[in-house]
Write a structure and sequence with these properties.
With about 375 residues, the chain is α/β, with parallel strands linked by helices. The protein has helices at about 1-15, 60-75, 110-120, 165-180, 215-225, 275-285, 300-315, 320-325, 340-355; strands at about 20-30, 40-45, 50, 75-80, 100-110, 130-135, 145-150, 155, 180-190, 190-200, 205-210, 230-235, 250, 270, 295, 325, 375. The protein has nine helices and 17 strands. The protein is elongated, with a radius of gyration of 23 Å.
Length: about 375
């Protein structure tokens, strides 16, 4: 989502400057290993500047040339980078990832519909699915990025006539429900097409309850990750916007009033870091029944256990599933001591929980780093 927002901001900038067309490069398929996964995008502006990335820097040089050719010809292109060949230096890739990466290049603003689909996917706090269609045979292009479906039922598409729109939308609905980027295939009029159903999640929104000095680096890290950061505190002396990075919402409130200023959803995280026992306890009373995706409590475990026992004695009830979402002490065990290190620990745990991962060491993982692609039945 952060990359999409940056790309749309860059598009707006070069449009305001009344420059010529640009090109959008999208990773639509990966076989084997690659630095970026399907859905990674890079915008090449008329002046050759790039926003976003489709690799760790290995493909960008060649992709820049392909994008400029796309701008000149105003035609979509599908380019395959095969890094399984040890002699990949011949094409200037030198990836060493042992993977095959397919990249779809689309000219902008000639394909203005693509921009409108990206804007729909980023315009609200809802999960969306973007559909990109590309041929298996070389030289056959469009359709490209051609449809977007959001959880509120909003649907936009610009497929040519004769395509099985109802079946494709049904598949998009299935992918939207699963929340997992998936792939499919389609035979149409004697031609074979590949389908990339990319899930676009809204940014994680994080509420930090506590505006102390240790909240400042956590706000900075969260914003670098594209998260929406909010800070609340009962002390007006601490809850001052100028203490935090621009774009962070900061407000003063009592525990009972905090949720009047911030509405959680299924992409939300809250971290209690007030260093005030009674304030944290009052916030837990408000937050526990909500079963948030992530609820972190800074401080020792015995502090959290004591708060929970007191709340139970006072009549607050909860289920085991609700307690599983409570992380106290908050953060991963990385030997953090300083405020910046602690912020890194907390941010890493929020990221791991949001993606359903444990936060363990990659070298101890059996199998590939990324999960295998989900393949849908052919149409």
């Amino acid at each position: 989502m952060q990359e999409l927002l940056q790309i749309l901001a860059a598009v707006q900038q070069w449009q305001l400057q009344q420059q010529g067309g640009a090109a959008l490069a999208t990773v639509v398929q990966v076989a084997g290993s690659a630095y970026r996964r399907p859905g990674a995008r890079m915008l090449v502006a008329p002046d050759g500047s790039m926003t976003g990335a489709i690799s760790g820097g290995c493909l960008e040089g060649d992709a820049l040339r392909k994008a400029q050719l796309t701008m000149q010809q105003q035609q979509r292109k599908l380019v395959t980078y095969d890094t399984t060949d040890e002699d990949d230096a011949l094409v200037g890739a030198q990836l060493g990832c042992a993977g095959v990466i397919q990249v779809l290049f689309e000219p902008l603003p000639a394909c203005q519909q693509v921009l409108s689909l990206l804007q729909q996917a980023t315009g609200r706090r809802q999960r969306s699915v973007l559909l990109a269609i590309y041929p298996t045979q070389p030289g056959i292009i469009p359709p490209g990025t051609c449809a977007c479906l959001s959880t509120d039922g909003s649907f936009a598409q610009h497929l040519p006539e004769g395509w099985p729109l109802a079946d494709l939308r049904r598949q998009m609905e299935q992918v939207l429900a699963s929340g997992v980027t998936s792939f499919g295939s389609l035979e149409l009029q004697g031609q074979s097409w590949q389908l990339c159903f990319e899930v676009v999640q809204p940014p994680i929104q994080v509420l930090l309850v506590g505006a102390g000095n240790d909240a400042i680096p956590l706000v900075a890290i969260g914003q670098q990750l594209g998260w929406h950061m909010t800070v609340a505190d009962g002390r007006s002396s601490h809850a001052r916007p100028q203490r935090f990075a621009a774009g962070c919402q900061v407000f003063t409130a009592r525990p009972a009033d905090v949720l009047q200023h911030w509405q959680p959803d299924d992409r939300s995280a809250v971290v209690l870091m007030t260093h005030n026992y009674q304030y944290d306890k009052a916030m837990l009373r408000e937050l526990l029944p909500m079963a948030l995706p992530y609820l972190g409590v800074l401080g020792p475990r015995k502090k959290l256990d004591r708060i929970l026992q007191e709340l139970q004695d006072e009549g607050l009830q909860w289920t085991d599933d609700m307690l599983l979402k409570v992380h106290g002490p908050t953060g991963l065990e990385i030997g953090a001591e300083t405020p910046a290190e602690i912020a890194l620990s907390i941010a890493a745990e929020i990221q791991a929980c949001s993606t359903g991962h444990s936060g363990g060491k990659l070298r101890q993982k059996n199998g590939p780093i990324h999960a295998a692609a989900v393949q849908l039945p052919p149409q």
